[in-house]
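TA notes. Do not distribute before section.
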Amino acid sequence: MRKDSTKRPPKTDEKKAAAPRRRLRAVNREQQIVDEAVNFFAEKGFSGQTRELATRLGITQPLLYRYFPTKRDLIERVFDEVYLNRESPDWSSLLTDRSRPLHDRLCDFYGSYSEMTYRYEWIRIYMFSALMGEKLNRRYIKIVEKKILTPMCAELRDYCGQPTIEEKPIRQIELDHIWVIHGGLFYYAIRKHIYHSRVSKDFAAIVSRAVAVMLAGSKAVSAELETND
């Protein structure tokens, strides 16, 4: 019988064929864990288990703990990533630039603020942590009152011709008044990302109307409020 002259392909070394998984640099691995943790906690809340998070990442739980020794460490890093790292240094100057009308300043501020915060993961993590009694929310509220609402109170006083905050300290009722518009606009994001209800796509128009009503109303009753104080 004639031998088959067809040449067979040489055998492939399976060990060489299987390309080894590329190891990420420590800083890249850490950021990968944080990014996925943001998505994970937005979906599951902070009650989500790190074992499941590790599975999603395709890593072992011990490796996850090498970067974040405790679940609390990871939660704190997620808080920094979602809340603190999204603050803009321009917000303060934007709110206090009295060369521009207050209406325009507030509209521009909420346009920028909403882009950074009214997002799926931001809203859901905020709501989950609030329901669980997390201190993160209280910490963030203090930041909002100090860096956003207090300057807004000062600018509203100037707009209404009232004493400066140096002449007369801001009262809680003033902060609560500002919280009404701030919380009302925030509820737009809750309706969108939590309730998945129908919302207007023209958020800028919503902000403009809300700000105009707030300014007009504040000026209309400012003299009365000042007298009652």
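Switch to the second chain here.
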Amino acid sequence: MHITEEHRLSFRNEGYFFLENVIPPAQVEGLREECQRYIDRYDAEMEAKGVTVQGINHYKKRYFISRRGLESPTITDFLFSDLMGDICSATLGEDAFLFHEQYVVKFAEVGTKFGWHQDSGYVGHYHRPYLSCWCALDDMSIENGTVSVLPYSAIGMTPDDLYDHEIESGSNDKIGYQGDHPGVPALVPAGSIVVFSSRTFHRSGPNTTSGVRRCYLAQYSAEPIMNREGTGLWGQAVPILEEGQLCRPQV
């Protein structure tokens, strides 16, 4: 009910669309509370190891806290909600699977940027495009480092193009576009979702405000995505839609 034909066309032709104020306030608050609980746990893990950088996570600066959703009833209820089922149906079709999910957090005044990349660039081999749903848990602005998306037409790419990515020294980020197009910033309120293809280039700036900037990224695929050798799953493959019917896993 939230998704129009205009949204569908934008996704097909440009790789993205915005849905504003679609996550109920109580659900936004629940996702925030779970976010803080996992940040506290992650801090304890890094402190125990005596490190400030682990992969693409930076202590008290930037966090990617992944694959915790199926252990949390609050997050599971969101991941397999009618809303997310509708988005999957409109973009992926009648069959869809939860592929990956993570919190992305930038702390006040020190949260670092994240360069232009395709989410597919992190898989490391060719695969069918999947879906990314970037869910704003705070009001988003340029100042707090919102996400920006790069329309397909801006660089003349097709919906299936997968670019080479290089590791950026110092951040461990993968970068796939070095051009000067500014992209389209998501200046959306908390409870909004930026919906884009895993082939869509996107980036985010540093958080220069005095508040934390939180989002929750839920990703879905039209089919299980396998590793390069084809011997196992690359991520997850938990059904959310089967022949158009919503599935709800037991937690």
